[in-house]
Structures are given as C-alpha cells and as structure tokens.
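In response to a reviewer's request, we include the raw inputs and outputs for one of the modeled complexes. The two entities were modeled together in a single run.
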Amino acid sequence: MSASVLYDAPGPKARRRNVIFSIVGALLIAALLAWIILTLAAPRISANGNETPGMFDQSRWDIVSEPLLWDAFLQGVLNTLRMAAVAAFFALVIGIAFSFARTARSQWIRVPTAVLLEFFRGMPLLLMMLFIFLVFSTGSYWAGVAALAIYNGALIGEALRAGIAALPRGQKESGLAIGLTPVQTRVFIEFPQAFRQMLPIIIAQMVVLLKDTSLAYVVAYDELSRTIKNLQNFLGNNYLFTLFIIGLAIYLAINLTVSWIARFVARRSGPKMGKTTDGPKVPGADGTQALILPLRGDGPGSGYGGGAGV
Amino acid sequence: MDAIIESTPLYLEGFVETLKLLAISGVGAFVVGVLVAAMRISPIPTLRTFATVYTELLRNVPLLLVLFFCAFVLPILGVDFDYFVLACIGLTAYTSPFVAEAVRSGFNGVPIGQAEAARSIGLNFGQTVSLVVLPQAVRMVIPPLINVFIALTKNTSVAGVFFVIELFGASSRAARDHGDAVILVLLYAAFLYLVITIPLGTIAGAIEKKVAVLR
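The model returned the following structure tokens for the whole complex.
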C-alpha cells in the first residue's frame, strides 16, 4: 500500500497546513542538529578543572593532514574488504551446499542438516568467531572468514530452500516427465529458478556480511573498527572523536555504495523469466511468494502456475 | 564437566544480563521504531525525509561501531552512564530502524482495498490508520518483529565486547579460565543462546501459520 492512499491529495488548505507542519518539523530537526553541533563544539571542563577543547577544535583535527593516519585507514579498509570478499564467496558455496542437503530426498541427510542449520542460525556470530578462533587456532583472519561464511551460509541456505519450496510444482513434475533424474531436475530446473528468485535476498545478506566483518574486532583482526581503536591507543583520547567520525564516514561510504549496487543488481538481474507477484506480502517470508511465469508476450501477472503459496 | 559446573553461576548471571538487555532495548527499539514508521507514512514531507534518512544511516553502520560510539565516544562527550545503560542505548538505536521496516512492511501487507474502502466512507488519515489498517497490520507485523527480536538476542552479544558481562562476556571469561575445556564452555553458552532464540523462532513460525490460514 502506498502511503498516499491513506490521505487525500491535499487541497489548498491541507497543503498550507502541510507546509506549515513541514517548516515547523524542519525547524525542530535543524534546532536539534544545531544543539548537537554546538554541544560538541563547546569546550568542556572536566571534574578536576582541566579545560578540554571542543570537538571541532583545531587541536583535534590536525592529524587529518598526517599521511600515516590515512595509510592506517586504507589498510583497515582493505582488510575489511578482503575478509568480506572471501567470506562472501565461501558463504555462497556453503549456502548452496546447505540448500541441497536440506532438500535432499533421504531424511538421513535432511534432518541432521535442518538441526545444524537451526544451530548455526540461532547462535551469535560473535560466539562462533570466538569458538573457531580458540578451538581451531586458525588465526584471526580465517576465524573471521570461517564464522562469517558458515553463519551467512546457513542463512543463504535457508533462503534457497524457501525458494525451491515456493516453486510451482509443475516445474519439478515436468522435469521428471521429460526423463531427467531427480538430481538433474533439482540442479538444472529447480535450483536456477530458486537462485534467481532469491538473488535479492542473497545480495542483501552480502551487505549484512560486509557490516558484520566489524565483529572480527573481537579476535583482534585489524579491520576498520579495530583500526580506530588502534589509532586511539596510539594517538591518545584527544583524537578519538575525530578518528570515530572518519571511520564512520568510511563505513557509510562503503556500505551505502554496496547497498546501492546491490539494489541495482537485484533490480536488473532478479527473477527475469518469473516475476514475483507484487501483491500482498506474506509476512516474514519475503521473496518466497509464488512465481508467476508470464505467457509469451503477456505482462507479468497473467501467468499459469501461480499460487503455489508458502 | 567441572568447567561447566564451575562456570554455571557466572553464566546464569550473564544469562540474566542478556535477558535484561533484550527486554530493555527490545521495548525501547519497539517504541522508537513505531514512531519512525509512523513518521515514514505520515503526510508531512519533512518527517518522511527525516525517517528515511534515519533508517538508511543507522542500517548502514555496523552494530559494533554503534556500541563503540556508546562505550568510548559518549563518555568523552560527557555522558556519564554505566556501560550497561550505554549498551542499551546503542542496541535500541541500532534495532529501531529494523523494527520500523518490519512495521512498515506489515502496513504494506494490508490489501490496498481496505484503506481505499475506509477512505471512501469518509474516515480521515488518523481514523483510517488506527481503526482499519493498524488492527490488521498488527497480525502481519508480529512474525517479522519476532525475527527482529531474535536478531537482537544475538546482537546483545556485541555488548559483551564493551565491558557488559552478559552471556558472551561471561563465556569469553569462562573460556579464559578453563583453557582446557574451551569447546565445552563455549558450546554451553551457545546452548543458552539457543534456549532464547529457538522458542522465539517457533512462536514466530506458529503465528505466521495462523495468520496465513486466516487470510
């Protein structure tokens, strides 16, 4: 439902009221921001009477011209990206493997996989990282990569399983009917469709994975967050606010870019032959709506074989 | 086995602390999230923009950085709270946009005809939302909201990195004290997390089924 259904297209009176409310709201928000900035800029006096300069004081920002600082941040960014890229690759592989095992015909494979998936999905990533780090003594990089890959692999596996389950039954039946073995049907007919269908969810999960690399902080991997902490220890508390703001800006720049790319890719290469119904969403099952395969030349929504609900 | 028995008191303390974090920041995030969601569908453009920016920004900052801000930067700015309170603030702030998105998608899940019908019999924005759309949306919102709270349960572990002795903090202590039984001690902690997350997941699944039948 778009928000505009909830109220009329504003007439002259309502438009005037909206403008007034908008201006009041904007002023309130601007006042809040101004208050925050002024509070930050004001020098403060600590308990023992020392005056410390405000957060935008020259003495807090002179490190910006220091090339060593940028080297450190660059290294942090590279480490973060390195971990995210490798973990994303393995997460995809593990996710695909999980989805096949989870939908296997033999229950000797299916049930243990379900239990394992439940276990991996239910425990904090942080705990998994620490576990791998301490038990397998892999070093901080591989502990981070392995934990990220397994945890996100479990989530991707679950998504792919839901995708396979949501396919119209006819897909599998016709695969079997033309003489493919059940495994061939799964690999060549069902899986490619489910993967396409779930691509937006998988890409969104990759963005989460990128964010979660910051948890490798706990195993002392020098990614971006750890870099801030290291630099704080090195340069002193005086620069902490500056360092934090720089780190925050870098994270936002990377994540917003990747989110944007993800959205773009999801729109471009999402389900092409089958479009998801845009109708009412089933709660908690994003993307697991039924496929509606367009008839030749017809737009989406006029297909056969829709309605294989979740 | 000794390691498990010896670390049980510490773990129970941590478990209670985790539940406290979950309850406080869960309620906080729910309140803030609903407010943000309401702003996002309101007729006033400024509020809509503000809510969108708030959601986009907070969703793209890692939780660790949010809690880092709360634990290290806020004290420098003169906010003098206990680490537990700071962690609650951080978790609330981080979780609220996810709550807002869940609420919003629940709103979007109500068939458009409902709002149109309400509008056509002359109800205004407030009446349409509170009498027609909201009662239906609540049912749709509960399962995704529970999923958000499951994620929050797991996210409370990050507070353990910043000096709150909750379950993760307790388990990393126990792992240090019982170097010979690390596997056991950590699996014990994982089990305690699953005690919270799996029932929540089951409840969400059950409600989801019920709603699906009703529709």
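As requested, we also summarize the result in words. Chain B has a mean pLDDT of 88. The two ends of chain B are 50 Å apart (CA to CA).
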